[in-house]
Structures are given as C-alpha cells and as structure tokens.
Amino acid sequence: MPSPKKYVSVNMTEPAAHFLAALKRFDGFAQLGNKIARARTQDPPIVYAQVLPGLDLLICKVRGVQPPYPDDAVLVRACLESIANALEQAASGLEQGGYWYESGGLGFLIFASRARETILAEFGGSGPPLRTGDIFRDAR
Fold it and tell me: Among candidates 106, 102, 85, 89, which has minimal Cα distance to 23?
C-alpha cells in the first residue's frame, strides 16, 4: 500500500533573505568582505574575478562621498543584493558593460568575465589582473 505524500510548508514571506543567505554561504564570496575593506581604503578599483562562474565584480569608491561609511556587513549585503539584481537583468547587458550599483560610498559593477579586458580599460586598468608572483617579480 503506498504511503501518503508528505507536504512541507515553505514560508515564502522572505524569499530574498533566503536567497541572500544562500549566496553568503557560497565559497566564491569568502573574500568579499576583504575586497570591500580594501576598496574603501584605496583609490584604484578592486576586481573580484569569477565571483560567480562567468561573472566578475569591480568595486570602487564613489567620488565625493564623505565619512561616516556604513559597516562592512551592510556593504557586503548591499553587494550581494546588487549581484542578485544584476542576475535578474538581461545577460546581454552583463556582456556589454555590466550593471552599476552604488551603496554606502562604494560602486559595484557586475559584468561578464568575457568583458573583463574592456571594463578594465575603461576604469584605467590594463588587461587581466596580475597574479601575486608577477607583482613581486616586477618590483625587483
């Protein structure tokens, strides 16, 4: 005799909160807090390559913003929300310059990894980011 199906009730009042919690647990975001802290303290933009497979993130200061800045946890949440919003947009926009979001004095540009060279050229970079060994070798 077949057993009756069990139904699990799901509370869908805060689906965005559950999605953001799942994103925070993803290994690709392990360094997000450190990258945001670095972007707040220095002028050149920070590139977080492959934040998700095929997706890059550029973090930089917004000009003219004065302290006090929000806590890092608030900025990490704003960054994750920006990534979630960018993923809801057209994929062609990610490849043609990405999507720009601002929060707490920082700007987040979410774009396709294929467009990295074009994006870095626009933001003053030159080509793909160097590996740590290449930076120390050039300094000698």
Answer: 85
Read off the pTM: 0.70
Quote the tokens at residue 66.
């004065």
List of residues 6+ apart from 81 with CB closer than 8 A: 16, 20
Contact 111, 58 (CB under 8 A): yes
Q: Which residue has the tokens 């949440």?
A: 77
The predicted pLDDT at position 108 comes to 95
CA angle at residue 75 from 85 to 47, to 5 degrees? 75
CA dihedral (54, 82, 66, 73) in degrees, to 10, reads: -90
pLDDT in tens, 17-75: 665 666 666 666 778 888 998 988 888 899 999 888 889 999 999 888 887 889 988 99
Could you give the angle at the alpha carbon of 72 between the alpha carbons of 66 and 73, nearest 5°? 135
The mean pLDDT of 112-139, rounded to a whole number, is 65
Burial code (b: 16+ CB inside 10 Å, e: under 16) for 39-66 equals bbeeeebbbbeebbeebbbbbbbeeeee
